[in-house]
Amino acid sequence: MDGQERKVELVEKVTAYQGYFRIDRYKLRHSLFAGGLSGVMTRELFERGHAVGLLPYDPVKDAVVLIEQFRIGAYAQGWDPWLLEIVAGIIEEGESHADVAKRETKEEAGIDVTDLVPVHHYLVSPGGATETCALYCGRVNSEHAAGIHGVGAEHEDIRVVVMSADEAIAKLEAGQVVNAAAVIGLQWLALKRGELRRRWLSCGC
């Protein structure tokens, strides 16, 4: 398709399911690399909103605040369903990324965020969902991070886990962190930790 216009022709879009989440069914065709258009294809697309993820990092103690909770997807896959993750939540109408990051960090970990650094903004599973995740690293004080948190009405049962950045990165390398946002966040921290500590410890922000 180099040098030619890429296009998508939408033939039909219907809502196939509407519950807590939504599934839309698309019929479309699109430009081919060899030229021309594909045949009409049918794809179901999962609609669940867009998320913000936050890796809470304490530069003074060089520690991260992770959370652990039950995940139905891991259970259905036959994996250990209690996953080590970072803080995350769905963006509600009218909320900024910072709003979500601060709200979810308080709800899920019981601590406050004092500064945010963008990490990445990515499509979570573009083959079957529209969801994006805006990922940040946030400065926190991990001294009193502990306990069990979450919104009971949403069946959240979230345990706070504080560990050194070295230990968290070692768990990542050992394959003990399998949540995508946590993997990306910890990989970023492994690359940027020195720079981040110099920035936050020098400015006192």
How would you describe what is shown here?
This protein is globular. The termini are far apart. Helix 3 runs antiparallel to helix 4 (180-203). Strands 4, 5, 6, 7, 8, 9, 10 and 11 form an 8-stranded mixed β-sheet that branches. It folds into 2 domains: 8-47, no CATH class; 51-203, Nucleoside Triphosphate Pyrophosphohydrolase (Alpha-Beta Complex), CATH 3.90.79.10. It has helices spanning 72-77, 97-109, 165-173, 180-203, and strands at residues 8-18, 22-30, 41-47, 51-58, 63-70, 82-85, 87-90, 115-123, 132-139, 148-149, 158-164. A hairpin with a 4-residue loop joins strand 4 (51-58) and strand 5 (63-70). The protein is built from 4 helices and 11 strands, in the order βββββαββαββββαα. The protein is of the alpha+beta class. Helix content is 25%, strand content 38%.
Poorly predicted runs are: none
C-alpha Rg, in Å? 20 Å
Give me the strand/helix succession: EEEEEHEEHEEEEHH
Total domains, how many? 2
Outline the biggest β-sheet: 8 strands, mixed
Strand content: 35-45%
- Distance N terminus to C terminus? 48 Å
Strands, count: 11
Q: What fold name stands as the CATH topology of the largest domain?
A: Nucleoside Triphosphate Pyrophosphohydrolase
Number of helices: 4
Mean pLDDT: 94
At the fourth level of CATH, the homologous superfamily of the largest domain is Nucleoside Triphosphate Pyrophosphohydrolase
Q: What is the level 1 CATH name of the largest domain?
A: Alpha Beta
Q: How does the helix and strand content classify structurally? A: alpha+beta
Helix share of residues? 25-40%
- CATH architecture verdict of the largest domain: Alpha-Beta Complex
Morphology call:
globular
